[in-house]
Amino acid sequence: MILVVSIFRKASYWAFLFSLALLSACSEKMTVQFQASEQTVAKATLGGNIRVNLKRSSRRTLGLPFAPSTHTSDEVLVPYTVSGTATPGVIHNLSSGTLRIPSGTDGNSLQFQILDSSFQGIKTIVVQLSAPKDGKLGNTNTHTVYLGDGAIAGQILINNGDLTTQSLDVTLTFSASGINQMYVTNTSGCATGGSWESYATTKSWTLGQSNSLATVYVKFRDAALNETECYSDDITHESFNPVTAGAVVIDGGDRDDHGHATSGPDNILGTTDDVNHDGWLFIEQLIDFAKKGNLNNAPQDVLVVGASSIALNAIQSATIVQNLSITVKTGSQLSNVDFNNYKILYVPGDQSNTFGGVSNSDLSILKTRRLDIQTFVNGGGSLVALTEEGSSEPFGWLELPLPFQIQSVSGTVLRKTQAAIDAGFTISDTDLSNGTPYHNSFVGPPNFNGLVPFVLSEIDQVITLGFSSQLHKSKIITHP
């Protein structure tokens, strides 16, 4: 009796262990899931593959030699359903069914073919897995195939599609389906200049070109690392609004240091028949160019920044001939002046090169008003500025995407460019050269912030830059 009970207890013990092993082994279910949640396929291709991965259980519980291990080698059947906006049997040939994963393998692929690529826009194939017998689903049990014109249908817009901008800093907007990453660059072809980053619908960006047509490029890729073509959008960057801006001229000479009028036939200085002396005529023509290019119709004529003595005499004699009045502001007055009350803003040569020229302190105050000056010019006001070669920050008061780069030079021979002639400047090259020596040339940035060379030295250094307004009339007063 005791022996029978003992045997019975041992048998029950081994049965209990077997049950534990079986339950433990069964709890280690195989897992099936898609390798990726989505992909994109160009509709012009023949088709594609959708990979399903299988993680099999091979754990033997309690070290028992008879613990079930059939999951390591058996064939696995995975049911799936197909939906989406791409019609099965019309656009593609994939239909709901069961995927067979052969024994001893870790997955298999669903294959599909594109039957009709004439559709427009993007179509989707959505595949949903169901758990196999004695198995479970992983986290990725739905896969979407995006069918479109390219590998991935995508779009980029600069500043929501604006045609022009006056800032190099812009906002990019992206639109793409079925992607995970994007590569943004200013380089054509999307091969260099960027790096892969997580996809976002917007991104702050700095344009790579100024005062010209600027283009930004982007490509996308999905979780399977399929890449798109290189998409792009462009925008025209302009420091000065070509439609509304007044005339602008920036000169590297200090003609106001030794340029003034002498009396004409009436032998009276300060009348409209005054004639050229030491390059004064070029200052007079600069003012006339600014006058004819003015668009803001302001109540007052010329605002002069910080001029005195010789520099003041030069601008006074030029404006007298043009029948214009001047207002001189300096120091704290510059902090509050309303530029929009004037047709022309005139900045004389710097104090280091011009007697009575503009001081560094006045230029520093102007710098604090650079956005107001930009508004003034783009609102139709005209601007004339002479050399700042001797200042601490030449032309730093101009709100520009890239600062002007100047080089200290000196010479005595100058010539007009065709652009100056087209703009209406009639001064002879001989009279132009009377206002020398000049003090700086402009060597950058590329495209000179939208201005074009008006005057060159004998070795083609750029001495004067200009910008003509839309309504500028090329009729400059000619003096003997």
What do these coordinates show?
The chain has 480 residues and is an alpha/beta fold. The chain has 3 domains: 29-57 and 68-148, Sandwich (Immunoglobulin-like), CATH 2.60.40; 154-237, Immunoglobulins (Immunoglobulin-like); 248-467, no CATH class. The chain has helices at 2-27, 255-258, 280-292, 309-321, 333-336, 360-368, 370-378, 418-422, 429-433; strands spanning 30-34, 38-42, 47-55, 76-83, 97-101, 107-113, 123-129, 135-137, 142-148, 154-158, 164-165, 169-176, 181-185, 196-198, 202-206, 213-221, 231-237, 248-251, 300-305, 326-329, 342-347, 382-385, 405-408, 414-416, 440-444, 452-457, 462-467. The strands form 6 sheets. It has an 8-stranded mixed beta sheet. The longest helix is centred in the N-terminal third of the chain and has 26 residues, at 2-27.
Please tell me the overall pLDDT. Answer: 81
DSSP summary: helix tally: 9
The biggest beta sheet reads: 8 strands, mixed
Structural class: alpha/beta
CA-CA gap between termini: 143 Å
Report the principal-axis shape: rod-shaped
**Proportion of helical residues:** 10-25%
Strand residue content: 25-35%
- Give the uncertain stretches in residue-range form: 1-11, 13-27, 59-72, 472-480
Cα Rg: 39 Å
What is the strand arrangement across the widest sheet? 20-19-21-22-18-27-26-24
Counting DSSP E segments of at least 2 residues, the number of strands comes to 27
